[in-house]
């Protein structure tokens, strides 16, 4: 929603001021379809040529996510930490082997099924169960598991950052494609030098629209989308860091209530629940 609002504000300010200063919007509108087709067609071709299919697919998915609100809310994080508390509390009371079935079949586990938001997120469930499985096996110490977690989170971040980098390259190339469209317009104008001045003026104006559109599309549309997508990538990595911190605290001998407090402190302040909020939520969802 905010993306659309931002675009509307940008367009109103740019074209509104142009019209207010006596600009002929008809010249821009006349050239708009041809210039946009040239610029966006060339940019799309370059975008496809530059990126692997998996990056193209991720970029399309990421662009769709830019028009949706963030799923990483305080409620989601509270549910995540309540799940972590329940799992760690069961392991502490009944032993690590008691959670083996929950880890091997999370979609059948009462613990995971109780928390729908987290339980239906395949990537998060897989991240949690993979490291719980290592804890159950007892073959790795906390430092080895921390190093492995860091490597996986780093890989996750780089993988999700690939479409961000692709959009940034696209935004960087749009002004150049605008110049290409403008040069073609000038070439077309030079072939009509015998026309009256008013005709030549309109043709030159149409040619310059290409440069204008290339810059506007770059810094007004695609660069903001790349920045927004990058923020969403950081949010997804923060959730994994929260899980990592909680599990490591548990491995170091801290009680489940203290371990989830470690995880809480990792979160961004805008989504981080207070100590009292988290404690009340966790105590209200203790397993029977």
What would you say this structure looks like, in words?
This protein has helices at residues 2-20, 25-50, 53-66, 74-94, 100-104, 110-113, 116-119, 122-137, 142-190, 197-251, 256-266, 275-284. It has one domain (31-288). The chain starts with a helix and ends with a helix. It is elongated, with a radius of gyration of 27 Å. It has 288 residues and is mainly α.
What do the pLDDT scores average to?
A: 89
Could you tell me the strand content as a percent range?
A: under 5%
Q: Please outline the major beta sheet.
A: none
Distance between the termini: 42 Å
Total domain units: 1
Radius of gyration: 27 Å
- Overall SS class: mainly alpha
Number of helices: 12
Shape: elongated
Helix content: over 70%
Low-confidence stretches: none
Spell out the helices and strands N to C. HHHHHHHHHHHH
- The total of beta strands comes to 0
